[in-house]
């Protein structure tokens, strides 16, 4: 996810924006109850499920655009900020191409053919730096200040902009997402004024855009800078080792973490062993006893957070 300027979750000021909010009315597009439990090694891995949008309570505010480089990954700091210095993630939580696709190849000496084994997607290192915006839009979800956003996919990628947009919509509409604060609403648009854009791009393009704001994403990380929520294609397709068997859930973590930075939330640590990892925790650096979780709020609308980290 990103490494950006850590700011207090509860001290954000809100930008002006469209003031109307209406219930979400999309049919047949909720991610149907993906509640995954994946076992990694000797440690139990509780993956997070998807559910329909709903309400929750926790005050949150937002202000001017911020910059933050990959939330669930090693952090990078602009020279004028207090963010942590660029670093490579260590150990099994590193955010490299070590994240493998679901499934395991046949063992040595087995009769399974290599053609039967799942293959990792080919990820181009760079692209043209131009984007296609997903057409259409969504109903407003949440209550309060309506943030208009668009979804862009870099040209030349083997990704459907419409499919990416649908996934982003479902993440931002989930009742455990940022709308649970009671102040934030989202509406996807394809034209006109926008508050921010979720942009999936090659590692090279992400690096280039994030570097313009003083952030070093090193070909591996995501970032949130100004009005750009930059999603590294490598992370979108491969996730990280902890989420390698639940890439769909990890996409929720990317979006929630980076949009959280846009909303002025800073990084936090693990609240305690066995507790769900906050969405604003840099989970790629290690779980530190927490269990995997991709949502800012729990099913009862309680904000999931931990001690602040610099």
Question: Can you walk me through this structure?
Answer:
With 310 residues, the protein is α/β, with parallel strands linked by helices. It has one domain. The protein is built from four helices and eleven strands. The chain has helices spanning 161-173, 203-211, 233-238, 247-262, and strands at 2-4, 37-40, 43-46, 66-70, 131-133, 141-142, 145-154, 184-188, 196-201, 223-226, 228-232. The strands form two sheets. Strands 1, 4, 5, 6, 7, 8, 9, 10 and 11 form a nine-stranded mixed β-sheet that branches. Helix 1 links the parallel strand 7 and strand 8. It is globular.
Short description:
This protein is α/β, with parallel strands linked by helices. Helix content is 14%, strand content 16%. Helix 1 links the parallel strand 7 and strand 8 (184-188).
Note the overall shape.
globular
Order of helices and strands: EEEEEEEHEEHEEHH
Main pleated-sheet profile: 9 strands, mixed
User: How many helix segments?
Assistant: 4
Number of strands: 11
Proportion of residues in β-strands: 15-25%
Q: Can you give the helix content as a percent range?
A: 10-25%
Give the terminus-to-terminus CA distance.
16 Å
Overall pLDDT metric: 73
Alpha-carbon Rg, integer? 18 Å
- pLDDT < 50 runs, ≥5 residues: 3-65, 71-117
What's the topology here?
Layout: E1 2-4, E2 37-40, E3 43-46, E4 66-70, E5 131-133, E6 141-142, E7 145-154, H1 161-173, E8 184-188, E9 196-201, H2 203-211, E10 223-226, E11 228-232, H3 233-238, H4 247-262
Parallel strand pairs: 7-8, 7-9, 9-11
Antiparallel strand pairs: 1-4, 2-3, 4-10, 5-7, 6-8, 10-11
């Amino acid at each position: 996810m990103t490494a950006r300027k850590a700011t207090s979750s509860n001290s954000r000021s809100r930008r002006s924006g469209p003031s109307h909010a209406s219930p979400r009315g999309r049919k047949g597009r909720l991610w149907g109850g993906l509640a995954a439990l994946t076992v990694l090694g000797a440690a139990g891995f509780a993956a997070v499920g998807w559910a329909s949008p709903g309400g929750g309570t926790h005050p949150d505010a937002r202000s001017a655009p911020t910059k933050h480089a990959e939330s669930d990954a090693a952090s990078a700091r602009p020279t004028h900020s207090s963010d942590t210095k660029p670093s490579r993630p260590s150990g099994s939580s590193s955010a490299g191409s070590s994240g493998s696709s679901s499934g395991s190849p046949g063992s040595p000496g087995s009769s399974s053919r290599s053609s039967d084994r799942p293959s990792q997607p080919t990820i181009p290192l760079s692209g043209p730096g131009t984007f296609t915006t997903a057409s259409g839009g969504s109903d407003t979800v949440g209550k309060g200040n309506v943030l208009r956003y668009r979804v862009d996919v870099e040209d030349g990628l083997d990704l459907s902009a419409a499919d990416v947009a649908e996934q982003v919509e479902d993440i931002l509409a989930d009742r455990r997402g940022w709308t649970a604060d009671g102040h934030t609403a989202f509406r996807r648009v394809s034209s006109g004024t926008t508050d921010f854009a979720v942009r999936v791009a090659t590692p090279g393009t992400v690096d280039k855009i994030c570097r313009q704001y003083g952030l070093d994403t090193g070909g591996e990380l995501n970032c949130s800078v100004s009005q750009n929520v930059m999603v590294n294609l490598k992370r979108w397709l491969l996730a990280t080792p902890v989420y390698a068997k639940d890439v769909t859930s990890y996409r929720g973590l990317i979006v929630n973490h980076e949009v959280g930075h846009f909303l002025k939330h800073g990084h936090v640590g693990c609240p305690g062993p066995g507790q769900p990892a906050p969405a604003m925790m840099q989970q790629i650096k290690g779980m530190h006893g927490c269990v995997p979780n991709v949502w800012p709020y729990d099913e009862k609308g309680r904000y999931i957070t931990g001690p602040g980290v610099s």
